[in-house]
Every structure is written in structure tokens, then in C-alpha cells.
Amino acid sequence: MSRIVYLLNGPNLNLLGKRELHLYGHESLADVQQACAAQAAQLKLSLEFRQSNAESALIDWIHEARERAGGLIINPGAYGHTSIALRDALAACACPILEVHISNVYQREAFRHHSYVSAVAAGVIVGCGTQGYLLALQRIGQVVEGYHAARALKLVAAREQVLLPICAGIHGVLYEELPAAEVVRGLMLRPIKPEFD
Ligand code: CA2
């Protein structure tokens, strides 16, 4: 599983920190990018941080991520509420997808309560401010680590020709929320999504 993570931002998010401070906070998109880059470096993830106001550019980047990424984080902005095209592009990605909204969309107008993206996302982070992006990165980092630990165990088991009780489980699934050591010890494995390599 690739350690590349795409973090995509949709329309108007280039205006962060310039207007609507009560909704989206004081940080600019450049500030957010800097914080995300630091977090990604700590997690040993390679970050592709992008923003566009154009639906087509976002779709092209999702197609790119489909080929390269181990995880995709997207704040689709208002396109989340309107774009079936964005949803279709995301549905074609096998890697884990997390949707982030800075504001609590459920406290706002009814048209913001539905997102086409949520149905194809593994998780959604809403109303945590720009910290939502960092939480999403942490989560993707954990999924990637869990995958690599499970894969390492599978290789060792194959090399040693040992039949581990969890081998059948490891084959064909990803594991979530577990520190690598626990995965290796075979505790509490929980499948989340079919393996995609
Ligand atoms: O809360 C979020 O992150 C949103 O995705 C932000 C979108 C909005 O349409 C979604 O419903 C929720 C809007 C981004 C606009 O960002 C601005 C930032 C500063 C000034 C003006 C717009």
C-alpha cells in the first residue's frame, strides 16, 4: 500500500482565513497546508495537498490518486452537496477515503446536510475546524501502518510456513485502529475494506 496521501480541497476553500471567520476560523489554506505537511512527515506519509474551484480538476486529481495513493482525504466544499460526478470518481478509488468539513454542516442550512461523497467515504469528520484535516491524516496513517504490519506478518508466516490462526483473516482484508504491535500479535483484528493490491 502506497504511503502517498492526496488531500483535496474544493471550491472557495482558497478563501480560508479571509472571510467567514466565524465558520471556518482564522487559518489560511497555506497555514492548513503547512500543518498538514508537518503531520504527514511525522506519520511518514507523502502528502499531495491541492485545492481547486473546478470540478473537473478535482475529478482529474481523484483519477490520479486512484493510481498512486494509499489514502485520499477530501473537503469537497459545496460540490459535496451537488456533485454526482465527484462521487462517481471517488467510487472508482480502492483506497480509503475520508471526507472532511471544517464547519458543522448539520448546524447549518438543510441543503448542507446531504453529501454525495459520504456514501463512498470510509469516514467523515465534520465540525472539528481545520483540525479535522489532521485527524483525517492520523487515521489514514493508522490504516496504512496496520496494512503494512499485517502484510509483514503474512510474509513471515509464508516464509516460515507457519499457519497462524489469523492468516486466513489477513488474506484479503485491511485492518483498522490497531497499533502495529497488536496486529502482529493477532489481537482484535477488524476488517474494514477488501484489500486492493
Ligand atoms: O465546512 C466545510 O468545510 C465546507 O465544506 C465548506 C464549504 C461549504 O460549502 C460546505 O457546505 C462546508 C464552503 C467553503 C467556502 O469557504 C470559504 C472560506 C472563507 C470565505 C468564504 C468561503
Can you write the helix and strand succession as a string?
EHHEHEHHEEHHEHE
Number of domains: 2
Q: Terminal Cα separation, in Å?
A: 7 Å
Ligand names: ligand CA2
Task: Report the CATH C-level class of the largest domain.
Answer: Alpha Beta
Strand content: 15-25%
Q: What spatial form do the alpha-carbon principal axes imply?
A: globular
Largest sheet: 5 strands, parallel
Strand count: 7
Total helical segments: 8
- Strand order across the biggest sheet? 2-1-3-4-5
Reported by name, the CATH topology of the largest domain is Rossmann fold
Characterization of the model:
This protein has helices at 21-24, 29-42, 55-68, 79-82, 84-91, 131-160, 167-170, 180-185, and strands spanning 4-9, 46-51, 71-75, 97-101, 123-126, 173-175, 191-194. The protein has eight helices and seven strands. The relative contact order is 0.15. The strands form two sheets. It has a five-stranded parallel sheet, with helices on both faces. A two-stranded antiparallel ribbon has the order 6-7. The longest helix has 30 residues, at 131-160. The chain has 197 residues and is α/β, with parallel strands linked by helices. It has two domains: 4-149, Rossmann fold (3-Layer(aba) Sandwich); 163-197, no CATH class. Bound molecules: ligand CA2. Ligand CA2 binds at residues 12-13, 15-16, 18-20, 24, 75, 77-78, 101-103, 105, 112. Ligand CA2 is lined by residues 12-13, 15-16, 18-20, 24, 75, 77-78, 101-103, 105, 112.
